[in-house]
Design a protein that fits this description.
Distance between the termini: 29 Å
Order of helices and strands: EHEHEHEHEHHEEEHEHEH
Structural class: alpha/beta
Strand order of the largest sheet: 2-1-3-4-5
Shape: elongated
Number of strands: 10
Strand content: 15-25%
Helix content: 25-40%
Length: 255
Amino acid sequence: MMPTERSVLIVEDQPDDVASIKRFLGDLNVKRWDVAETAEQAIELLADDHHYDLHVFDLTLPDCANLELLDRLHARGFAAWRKSIVITGVVEELEQDRAIETFGVPVLDKAQLDGRLLAWARSIIDDSGTAWLTRIVATLGASLWGTGSCGFIWVPGASATQFRSMLAAAQVIPVSQDGVLVALPNEGLKAAVELRELLSDQLPGAPSLTSLVLMDLDASHDLYRLSQDVLTAVRRPGFSGAIWPLAEMSPRAVV
């Protein structure tokens, strides 16, 4: 059962967009809405140790653009990225990738908030979450917003530092001490297989790698639950690789 009181910070300078966000999140039983119309106002609110269950950040504000808001928050010590969602009308692909890689935050298109924003917000509020889970969710979100495909490669016993020179463009997600999950947003089977073979050749000890490719992502999926399913599958003994066509079957039936 959800707690009876929720608080949400909306960083948005357009009143119509603020009203839309509140409407989309109406089922969360929010008791306190705080609105910041500029990056400076947002930084001041968050610097005062206000507790919010959710932050919704627009990237284009009167005093910042692109990822400047996120960079400024990071510089001031903000760390609650797992409770944050970025919404935007326009974002460059490289900026979106950096938001995922650096901060682990999902980036949602303003034109597609109906359904997606509430589902994502509910997952953030209701899930205890971990850093790796947030990173996987953000990667799936980029794929949902892009081609609807996402590839994953599980590398057991590896560390993120081993990949810095090999995989500058990929998402490398450390998962405790067990290994790393390499995520390929907007990439399908061909890219996953090619990268898996490359890593098998270049990593020491000829590790056994597994891959999983998700196809046909859409707004109806619970991305937090799906992220947990992905990691459970690729780490399972005997798992040798799969494609999950999500429009046709449940991933739980495949594993």
